[in-house]
């Protein structure tokens, strides 16, 4: 699967636009991590636990988006982007989305 944040892929030609491919995950904070985050808030610095949580969330959302595109018969996704939103206190959704397409080598 070819994935691109742009709407073109060098050396490829889009032959069919299939539609929106998307994948999401909803994650909740961990109470133990909140304690560490509170301490970091006082002294400053990266909150590595949350950095790791967001990285894992992005990967899971992207994997689900790829699965969605493959189910539709696509071999590429163009224009991918990510979005986050709060669902409730302590829980957030991370959404990966893009346009599922079929691409071929340029002639």
Q: What would you note in describing this structure?
A:
- The chain has a four-stranded mixed sheet with strand order 1-3-4-2.
- Helices cover 35% and strands 44% of the residues.
- The longest helix has 24 residues, at 48-71.
- By secondary structure, it is an alpha+beta fold.
- It has a single domain (2-105), classed as 2-Layer Sandwich (Translation Initiation Factor IF3).
- The radius of gyration is 18 Å and the shape is elongated.
- The chain has two helices and four strands; from the N terminus they run ββααββ.
- It has helices spanning 31-43, 48-71; strands at 2-3, 12-28, 76-88, 91-105.
- It starts with a strand and ends with a strand.
Helix-strand string: EEHHEE
- The overall strand count is 4
Spatial order of the strands forming the largest sheet: 1-3-4-2
Fraction in beta strands: 35-45%
Query: What percentage of residues falls in helices of 4 or more residues?
Result: 25-40%
Distance between the termini: 20 Å
| Structural class computed from helices and strand pairing | alpha+beta
The CATH H-level homologous superfamily: Hypothetical protein apc22750. Chain B
Shape: elongated
Q: What is the makeup of the main sheet?
A: 4 strands, mixed
Number of domains: 1
The CATH architecture is: 2-Layer Sandwich
CATH class: Alpha Beta
**Number of helical elements:** 2
